[in-house]
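hiii, so i know i said id send this last week but things got crazy w the move. better late than never?? heres the sequnce for the chain we talked about at the cafe, plus the structure i predicted for it. fair warning i was half asleep when i ran it
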Amino acid sequence: MDDFAINIHTIKLEYLLGGITRESAIRKLGLLYADFFGFYTASYEEAMRSDFYIDEEGM
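okay and structure toks below
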């Protein structure tokens, strides 16, 4: 989570200092959010399907 926040602030600073365009900043943020939420969604889904959460033999 710390890396996610650092990356957001880095993109914001690059934009504010004129290092990247508004369109580039939006694109970078979009990719960052997609990677972040995709990673955690896939991890959550995998955990929910694991034997730890699913009792395949019933209760």
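btw Residues 22-49 form the longest helix (28 residues). thought thatd interest u
miss u guys!!
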